[in-house]
Amino acid sequence: MRCIPFSFLLLGAFTVPIAAQTPTFTKIADTNTVAPDSGGSSFSSFGDAREISGSRVAFYAFHGSGSGIYTYENGVLARLVDTNTLVPGAMSNFSTFFDVSIDGGLVAFSGGWPGPGGGCAFSGSEGLFVRGFQSAASPILVRDSLSFPDQCFHGVELDNGFLFYAGGVNPVDVVHNHSEEIKVATGVGVGIPVVDLTTTKPSGGNFIGFDGDFHLQNNKFLLSEIIVNTFGAVNGLYLMENNGLGPQVVADTSTAVPGGAGNFMNFASADFDGTEVAFMGRDSNNAGALYAGTSPANIRRVAGAGTPVPGEVVNFLGISNLVAIDGGAMAFSGYWSGGDGLFVSQNGVISSVVKRGDVLDGRPVQQAFCRPGSMDGNFLLVDVRFLVGMSLKPALYLVEL
Q: I want to staple 163 with a disulfide (CB 3.0 to 4.6 A). Which of 150, 154, 185, 207 is the partner?
């Protein structure tokens, strides 16, 4: 694997131990918030694509007249790019966005617009772009489906001067987020494969496809192999370094579940902080729990059915799919009889962030979760759902632990 950093990406990263204090919630946006430069339309929903870098946030959201990628810092909400933005080098505006990644003062994103396609799940043209955080300058086109052999651009990851992206020439299956390769962009118009369908798995045979949700930290790379035509579960988790050894197994379906039933059946959410992988794994009974480690030899169970719920007199019945990790602290959603909530585990101690029924901004919380890439130091980017009438209304909060 050869990785050459962009000359214009000069970034750094650090983590801060989480202090024991009451979490502070700052609302970024909800369905009453007017989307910047939207002509007065309020946000209607928030996409899965989002990421945090310190207290800076970038996220994909929808509103009444379109959609876009937005940034937030120190109370300032701004449009980075939306469906009114002209695609560099094209005669059309963006029509959709796929993924976003933020690191320091730069944001990378993938998007689509009307035009020649190439067999991808999205029927138009696609591309990969970078732009300064809250910058007034136009996005910089890195690669697109018109000028380069790539036709599909899905997941994006930006870290310490490296820009990785998932996609390829042909779709692997019907799931848009499934890719035939992951590349590193080494300059405008230049992409070098890191893994593809000719890459050999440690267990033998070649990979059959890659999930677009992958993670890059400290020059180490977490990737997952797909289950064909299956959304929300993957077949195995792998770490790769720039040492020529190729992908190494974190856990796959031949890995024994620590203290559980048989081998892992599949995996859902996974995140990586440069040192350890946190993931939700399902055992042979389809019971999900939170695990952490870097190889089958050191995987441990962090939380799951039978783990005491902080502040309650009951145990968890299970762990929901989404997890995040940074600096050894893991954010996860758990549920029990009559309740659920968002929690953080660090050094073997689990603490509550927010539970169903807690009140934020005068409204009772119904659900809360934190996606991979949404934890950096003491900060969490949290998706909160409030029950309003008979429907759930979403909101994004920046939480300082």
A: 185
Neighbours of 96 (CB within 10 A): 16
Residue 219 buriedness (CB in 10 A; 0-12 / 13-18 / 19+):
middle
Dihedral of CA atoms 119, 197, 173, 262 in degrees, nearest 10, equals -170
Question: Which residue in this structure is represented by tokens 């020439």?
Answer: 169
Where exactly are the structural domains of the chain? 24-305
CA distance linking residue 101 with residue 155, whole number of Å: 9
Distance, CA of 67 to CA of 51 (rounded, Å) = 17
**No. of helices (H) and no. of strands (E), the chain:** 0, 32
Q: Among 317, 331, 336, which residue's Cα sits nearest to residue 399?
A: 331
pTM comes to 0.91
Q: Which residue has the tokens 């267990």?
A: 203
pLDDT tens-digit map of 330-377: 999 999 999 999 999 999 999 999 999 999 999 999 999 999 999 999
DSSP 313: S
Question: Which of 80-84, 178-182, 221-225, 313-317 has the lowest average pLDDT?
Answer: 178-182
Q: Is 2.130.10 the CATH number for 24-305? A: yes
Are the C-beta atoms of 82 and 71 separated by less than 8 Å?
no
22-26 contacts at long range (C-beta below 8 A, 24 or more positions apart)? 23/353, 23/354, 23/380, 23/399, 23/400, 23/401, 24/399, 24/400, 25/354, 25/360, 25/382, 25/397, 25/398, 25/399, 26/75, 26/397, 26/398, 26/399, 26/400
Distance CA 123, CA 62 (A): 20
For residues 192 and 141, give the distance between their C-alpha atoms in angstroms, rounded to a whole number. Answer: 17
